[in-house]
Amino acid sequence: MTTSIHDTCFAGNRPGQSRPPAPENHSACRGWCRSCSREHSLPTGRAREQAGALFDRLTRTGTIAAPGSAAAADPRLATASLFGKARGKMFGVLECLAADGTCQWLFAFSGQYNGQWLVPGWAPPLFDPAAYQRINEPGERQVKALGSQLAALPASEPDYRKVAQARRRLSQELMVALHELYRIPNFRGEDTSLTGAVGDAAGKPTGIGDCCAPKLLGQAVARKLAPISLAEFYFGRSNRSGCRQHGCFYPPCSDKCLPLLGFMLCGAEERRNAYGG
Ligand SMILES: [Zn+2]
Ligand SMILES: [Zn+2]
Hints:
Order of helices and strands: EEHEEHHEEHHEHH
Strand order of the largest sheet: 4-3-7
Region (Disordered): 1-24
Strand content: 15-25%
Number of helices: 7
Helix content: 25-40%
Bound molecules: zinc ion
Shape: globular
């Protein structure tokens, strides 16, 4: 997990102020494009300021629901859980340009929010959540059943290794089946699988495609927008390794996002120019 030296905390480094300092234009969001044989990137730009405003809103309202909406009373959307056992989460903001030259802002949280993939106002995942559930639920049940079987067996029992192997194989098969549901789009109008986007040789870590940046770029493609700038920050209790702190900016992660972003950003520059950006 890498964090660049440009990363600046906006909670705590200036007493009484939770807003980030002036935007910096380092390339936070980047990746190597195999088809263009060069890197594509987005600056942090104005998204940084908008991310600060989102941070303030989450702090003030205590919910990820739109202020004043009926969903604001939904306890599943409260931010309190981010400070508890579940720990915090990354949030991302993407500044976009529409074909008519207007600015649009897209928002995302990483992974699921309290078990939900779809929350109004937030970028959806890069797969059909209903299809995901249809595969994941029975799969997880089987993996769990083998887990309890394993817990009941003494490790010296000859069956122990067999069950352990079956469980490992089953969870690998489940991950492959779930990964096959992802559709990774780019700004050239292309659409590929996770393997197509990262290449055959690359590994696919758990959670690949579920971070803020891929979700945001996917939604920008779906809405025919051109991405301009992107910023991500962490909100809530630090992750286990401590490399994510409440109120700090981080670039998209190097293990899961970097391998995807080169493909996803392909064609973004041309579209931005076509829209007069
Ligand atoms: Zn990531
Ligand atoms: Zn390219």
